Amino acid sequence: MLAPNKLDALIVTSPPNVRYLSGFTGDNGALLLSDGATALFTDPRYEIQAAEETGCKVIVARGPLLERLMTEVRRKHLRRLGFERDRISYREYQSLDECLAPSAGLQPVVGAVEQLRCLKDAGEIELIRRSMQIAVRAFEQAAGRVRAGMTEADLAAELDHRMRTGGAEASSFETIVAAGKRSALPHARPGRAPIREGQLVLIDMGALADGYASDMTRMLYLGEPARKVRQLYAAVLEAQMAAIDAVRPGVPAALVDRVARRTLRGYGFDKLFVHSTGHGVGLEIHEGPRLGRHSQDTLEAGMVVTIEPGVYLEGFGGIRIEDTVVVTSSGAEVLTQLSKELRVL
Known about the structure:
By secondary structure, this protein is of the alpha+beta class.
């Protein structure tokens, strides 16, 4: 990448990208990549950890990290420096700029490492699979304990606890539990109101294990679902399965989104689908590719994405069904090994 962009070096500061390229898992690190050589800069807290986790040359900064990095830049007489445009703060940019030699310059680089991360190798896929298995087990264990009167926050805490005790280092994002009318909020935060009979309960969750995330959404219903609930659910399920069937190498990501929307349009529900059909999953819960209306991405074997159409009716509730899937050489492998049926409690 350096030569085509006429760069002498690339500075990588985003923790997920630093981890991907070097194996370093600390939260304060920066990489300087130049002409086949890679140096990891960190602070004294991580000196032992960095030496254990990475094969890179490790440079321990006794002061500000980027200032020490730029000392190395000047020592090597590097002039054209790439930096992660979308991953650096203005303050960090100023720090780099102030330390530049007069003959040197900064060049913004967009998505260079993220593009590599879109394609997972077999080891990464197995880590995501394990993460998904942890989340599925936690859901199964917690769903059986749901009762009227339990709060959204209590159920979210139960799910998080089950994931932790099941082997996760954390939840891959703040677990969403939304009941009744609040399930129409796609990213609702769990509240203290009790879950009641006759309510939909939307659960969106994922585990983080060995640095890799998973993502799934399932629906519960307390009591006997009304006909309208079953109609909405059947439409979303059909849209989700149609979208998964559309996943294969060479397919535009936007096409998968169109398939989901076209299915919902057949039921008159397409206007109730207010977000994209999916996104990539890996070291971050949201990464490339994006499966939306305006996506320019094309699916390739080795990508791991979510498929998550939903419908949201204000004052009534929302339904979303989500799986994490791997794009294979011939189609899609669903990692979320869990029934998609509406679970009636």
